[in-house]
Please model this.
Amino acid sequence: MSHERILVTGANGQLGTVLTSALRAKHGPSNVVASDIKASSTSSGPFVMLDILNIQRLTEVIDDFRITHIYHLAAILSANGEWNPIKTWNVNLNAWINILELVREKPVKKIFFPSTIGVFGDTTPKSNTPQHTAIDPVTMYGVSKRAGEMINNYYHHKYKVDIRSIRYPGIIGYQSIPSGGTTDYAVEIFHHAIKEKTYTCFLEAGTTLPMIYIHDAIKATLLLMDAPADRISIRTSYNLSGMSFSPSEIAKEIKKFIPEFEINYQPDFRQQIANSWTKSIDDDRARNDWSWLPDYDLAKMTKDMFENLSK
Ligand code: SER
Model:
């Protein structure tokens, strides 16, 4: 029987939905408390409504459920973040600091913070982006997540909080729909291909971005959180690589399953965000420290997406 009592914030989100299920399968449904600002009708275990900025409620949840591990997934993503930058800073950074301050006082043993390729900016090398490099994000999402990474390092060294973090690429999965991100097109495209045989993409044809299949994103998260503390050499956030592709490359792959599929391009403000990010990631540290290896490339992912979406 697992001794972990886990809290997942943002559990209704694209990653939260699937990570909560994976944690429940591993630790038992009653040991994983899902929370979100919106109600959930499908939760297969304990669920609480939680606005991540409400410290009093957060304290109650941690105490009432005797939480030992937190996966803090609640966040506002890159595109939505630009509509309300100050709210994005509050949700992505201030709420995180509140949690860390609480955790210092409580018997919480380990805590997970998702960062992103969105921390990279115009000064970052575009190919095989190293772990340690120029980082000048252009979105408030990237700014707040980069600040979060530095706070992670600070709280780890100053207060010995066991914080672990990954810079996720764009996540693609069939179980849930992302919202408010720049990489969302790579999920939308499958749904439109199946329903309408056509998709109008908000990024240009050749915009290559780092992406990862949901199964690999979950695998990496569990590997990192299970690794012995002395294997964790990065306390800001780990680079992570799954695959890289552009809208035209994924469209070509989709045509193998739906030959009549057509893609059109109508770039909007998200193009500028994508242009500031990198194309591919060097994740040597994750590979060395906690034996990370992705299982899915573009072809294998596309096949799996169609198999699951057609069910
Ligand atoms: N998927 C995120 C976004 O597009 C990147 O981490 O905002």
